[in-house]
Amino acid sequence: MGSYRRNIMERINDIDIDDLEYVERDLCFYELVSLGFLLYGREKTTSEYILQKLIVLQQNPPKGKGNFGLAGSSDILRKYATINNTTWRVNIVEALAIIRAKKVLRKLGFSWQELHDIYLPHIPEVNVYIHPLLKALYKISERLSIAQAGRMVIKINETYLRHESQNLRFYDYGHLEVFLLFWMTRDVIAIGNQNLQGADVLNLISYFKQNDLDSMKAVLVDTINHNSVHGNYRRATNNTSNTVADNVVQSAAGNAVGRQETEDKDSGAVMDSRDMSLSAEHMQPQPNGFPRTDHEDFDCTERYVIRKQQAGYVLIINQSKFYEETNPEFKNLLPKIPFKPYRAGTDVDRDNLKALFSSFGYTPLVRDNLTHEEMQHVIGQTVQKSLIRDSLIVCILTHGMEGVVYGCNSIPVSINTIKAIMAEDTLKGKPKLLIIQACQKNIAPLDTSVSNAENQLEKQPDAYADMLTAMSSIAGTEALRHTMTGSWFIESLCKLTAKWCTRKHMLDILTNVIADVAKRHDKNEYMLPIMSTTLRKDFFLPPPT
Question: Where's the Caspase family p20 domain (predicted)?
Fold first, then answer.
């Protein structure tokens, strides 16, 4: 047995730092997130580094097909080796075993079975070199469904980081490790040292306990019990203090339950009434750890399910006051002719939209006078909050030019960019309605074709399914607005939606709106709204109050 272990160590020591470049070529973004978490999560400073690295990397994630993405190597493993020059080999090999990167390990000359027997990747509370709580938290990330992870992220952020969670700008709940890193850098949780002195995961244990996720709670409790009593098991003779772990277990966890021997028997999936609206396929973690994107799994029944109590948010961005951005970085994006300081009549549209959609059960979120960056952030934040909602409505009332809408600072945002933000996995398979009241007459200084090309690199075409866009005017024309009664388009939309909501779906209602607005004339002025759709079902609103 001793020679067997020495043979393994010889092969580990034979790994050269230059090999790591080729290792990363075979790792996809999902695997790099997991490795980054397991390797860099020990210290707050390194956690902050890898957190920012992963957020940047998601813009052009590697595919793990033996070559680099457009941005080249992520350099996550090589950087780790340079700052851990004596221990990087054993830590990287164990981390690769924990995430089951069998292809990479075979290329490095290892047998999967022998590494499995040494590192026991299926048992959360047993570790060799990797920090025990990092392994336990990774296993929890692996076992929770996307819906469960999303609800936990939203609840933890709302409870402990109400004013700071918006700064993360990461919305994919399929990568829970990113949110765990964020919580570690903000002291929501602490993993302590290798023997768990200084560890504090009370917030997670309490959440699991309150939400009947006993198997997840047990993973943390068993890890604390195992490692605080025996220390790091490869140094079982060390005398370590049990005080911190004992306090955690006694105050929040109660008695530890017997640990699970195989991960296949404990997916950690606990379904409740909120989960029942999601398909069974989406409720369980997929074999490769990625959310499903294949459109063949879509349930093609006649209409979307939109329950009044879970209808969703209606986000209304109302730009009534304008100024010119002074940052020289954006000078070339300012309109040639400055906008008037005030958009009279827009507050009427805002109030009508709020009253209309509130009557169908939508939760109104009204935001006045946002800059171009604030607009994108607020839309992304609302999408993030919509995980357990049935749909989303975004209304933008502002100035515009062809293909763009404007922030209150007179800087444009591509409409394609807004659609890309709304096309997140959070709302996969759910209807999304984008309503835009803005002129589309002149050519904008922003190249919207470039923005669209960049977005297409990040998303598969089916990500844009189930979206309905309604715009007040076709390209090259103005959107007419009365200074006292509001815009023609929004006035007609609110009137006809209220009239036909119980008998027609949104596509038919908007067809009526286009016809109604097209009939109107004012001093030889004419207006024609337009809509585009990728809806795959009929979009009926819930019964009004």
Answer: 310-443
